[in-house]
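Escalation from tier 1.

The customer reports that the assembly of four entities below gives different structure tokens on two consecutive runs. Tier 1 could not reproduce it. I'm attaching the input and our single run for tier 2 to review.
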Amino acid sequence: MSITVDDIIIGGGSFVIIGGPCAVENREQFLSAARYVKESGANILRGSAYKPRTSPYSFQGIEEEGLKYIYEAKMETGLPTICEVLDANLIEKTAKYVDILQIGARNMQNFPLLRAVGKSGKPVILKRGIAATIDEWLNAAEYIRSEGNYNVILCERGIRTYETSTRNTLDISAVPVIKSRSDMPIIVDPSHAAGVREYVAPLSKAAVAAGADGLMIEVHPNPEKALSDGHQSLNPHEFKTLCSDIKKLANFMGFGLA
Amino acid sequence: MSITVDDIIIGGGSFVIIGGPCAVENREQFLSAARYVKESGANILRGSAYKPRTSPYSFQGIEEEGLKYIYEAKMETGLPTICEVLDANLIEKTAKYVDILQIGARNMQNFPLLRAVGKSGKPVILKRGIAATIDEWLNAAEYIRSEGNYNVILCERGIRTYETSTRNTLDISAVPVIKSRSDMPIIVDPSHAAGVREYVAPLSKAAVAAGADGLMIEVHPNPEKALSDGHQSLNPHEFKTLCSDIKKLANFMGFGLA
Amino acid sequence: MSITVDDIIIGGGSFVIIGGPCAVENREQFLSAARYVKESGANILRGSAYKPRTSPYSFQGIEEEGLKYIYEAKMETGLPTICEVLDANLIEKTAKYVDILQIGARNMQNFPLLRAVGKSGKPVILKRGIAATIDEWLNAAEYIRSEGNYNVILCERGIRTYETSTRNTLDISAVPVIKSRSDMPIIVDPSHAAGVREYVAPLSKAAVAAGADGLMIEVHPNPEKALSDGHQSLNPHEFKTLCSDIKKLANFMGFGLA
Amino acid sequence: MSITVDDIIIGGGSFVIIGGPCAVENREQFLSAARYVKESGANILRGSAYKPRTSPYSFQGIEEEGLKYIYEAKMETGLPTICEVLDANLIEKTAKYVDILQIGARNMQNFPLLRAVGKSGKPVILKRGIAATIDEWLNAAEYIRSEGNYNVILCERGIRTYETSTRNTLDISAVPVIKSRSDMPIIVDPSHAAGVREYVAPLSKAAVAAGADGLMIEVHPNPEKALSDGHQSLNPHEFKTLCSDIKKLANFMGFGLA
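Tier 1 run:
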């Protein structure tokens, strides 16, 4: 099964690269990131205007202002866009500005939100919960699909284990497990899984080789100054090199490019 | 710090027992359960009208009808009541019928919902997420408190580990850890932690001895016929015996009774 | 089923307290600890002469010299003694000096060692492996029992999870699970589970209330100067107070004292 | 750093494939497996004569008889060989028959055994413990190296998590983490990680792409009749196809072949 957004195909034998910063911080930062993503040959632009943060006192996103910059970036680069939604009440507004709605790991079992994005009809990226089983994840997708919305893309982003060398433990096996149980596309987010910049490239390549349909990678114009997740973001040069390597590997593995 | 609901005190040296079925299934089942809870000497009545379920095709609760039965049970027994809320849009309605709002494990980091129960001013039971660290849990509580609502009760209900003999692994250490880091009351839910009826009594006693401020225990008039969680629910006789044992132990440990 | 060592009964309705330092460091430290253990009313003395340490460059124990101090302490105080064995070749020697052999968590599936302590006929404390399921633990005990040695005491000492507030997560549910599946006595080691001194007392009480047959608690004459595990050791005063509290609670719970 | 066994180089830019059955079951089974391994172009032959099993009543290996068949297979095929050692007392005998000693996951912190294989001077494959951190694993390797034996190959074989779709969770991130902290070669065992035959190929490819130095894959002449681990063993045809694919991918990734 494949999902088409503008002229980009996700799943069904094509390989997609999604890039962008964790958060939309301001107009300059986001448009700059968007240009790097485009120039690197990635296919879709990510960036969140609303950030779910562990503490209520951390940076929470620039909200509607951010949605406007996402839209402006799409207009300039032509790239389809992704933004996380935290609240069913904001789906309608978000859907006006962006192409794909993301459900974050913390909301994987926020069932009213799943039903609401289901009703929206928009393509949805459903991140795996931090300690969700694959069965629970597929059932969460079913909440969206049961509303008639089959445009669901699963995203493995690491699970919580005892190991502390990485932020989470990338469950690379989830790729073949999902392939054997479902026809939904599955992509991998190596940035949140690793939490460490230098591990992003090898994990990206592992995901391609395991058969994932795409990657979502954090890139920031200036990771050292990022308001969130800077330590796991690539800089533009690293991202461009990695995109090139990934495309060659995906091609070798028999994927078409999105 | 203690929280007072009607004439029941939670925290501050008194010990509270919360009982009731997982879900409000129908009028007869819930009123029957409520009478058993009252008769057993427990202090607060629980029951959910909205059920978050892994699959969209499982029983999801009887919704507003259930709220009315909860209210009726309070009127009859005089017990304060608890009901889970899944959706910020339902808080106002739920708050009309019940005394304490519960945030379930799956919603521990549903930040808009946390803010909304914070704004409601109602007492809140905040269950620990299934793989939440204690730091994340305290930060989730802070989302509620940052809205000016300090009536937050933490509830340890087991964490996800590799062990399969129990549904979850009760993290009994969370009791002293919370006591050392916070002044919020902490209660324990041995029913969801164990997932097995016969382990509920020993875990309940362990919680009292570890210093918890209360217990939330599932009891059903007829566990074999329960629509959810029957295998972990006590029957009325077992519940009554356990309440008696808990009160003696809590008294021995120096607690007053709520 | 109960196990008798000298005149101490483990299991079968009596409650036993085992105390002592992590390691035998020198004669003065260990004899001093032994006197405190005796004076506090505990029943069995622990101390290891051989220490399994993560790094080969950490303190590894004082070996045979330590065994002699354990024996001397037994002669002086009359307390039965426990020492860990790491190597089948040292069982015969260790068995001359001490009463109970301990298999540590790292060796729970060291099958030749299990068979060897089985053949020795000595009472054995079998600690649960750091990520062992209860089924694996019972099977490990079976390696000892299959050699004809039924004097096996299980010891829950915390399992590895994602939570970092404690060194390990005490799986208090293991107590009722073992009780339902086996007739072997089960004790709890709150010191290694918590890894933090202030949590040892509440976890000890939880273990009594959950139905454990005993406790193994670290106490050191001067925890600040301990060569290993000082942060989780009680000082003599704390230990004496805790022993007194535990005995009262065990008596309340219906245990006889060992 | 690389390790040379006969004319096979492990690490240092060459890629090695190790194949063979879980256990040496009998002469015919093992020689048959060895011929398939050779014919498929793999580089090293594995097979264990002593099996560590959860239950004392399960098949435990054919012991010395198995060592002789391993030696016979080496003589016939010319392949270097690997066999697990469980007991320091058997190292000398095992070392006469096989080229590389394996320390299994359960013995990763069996420190006397680590020191003993260190003293043997033989190349050692050190499997990661089922819940060992990477730090503990590197420290375990240091026990071997501290005896002057630097011929240590690390083997990632999956860690224990809550997920049950796979036998263990392959921690693919361990590959780049080890590469950043150590110069020891690291190989991956996808068979024990997955526990399911159909996931072995995608996980093998992921390991190559992540930068591992080799793979250890279970193959059995007749997996349905295997005495252990049959469900995760490839049949000879699957193994041959996978070896071919792996070599192409390793070549694409810039590895030389061992």
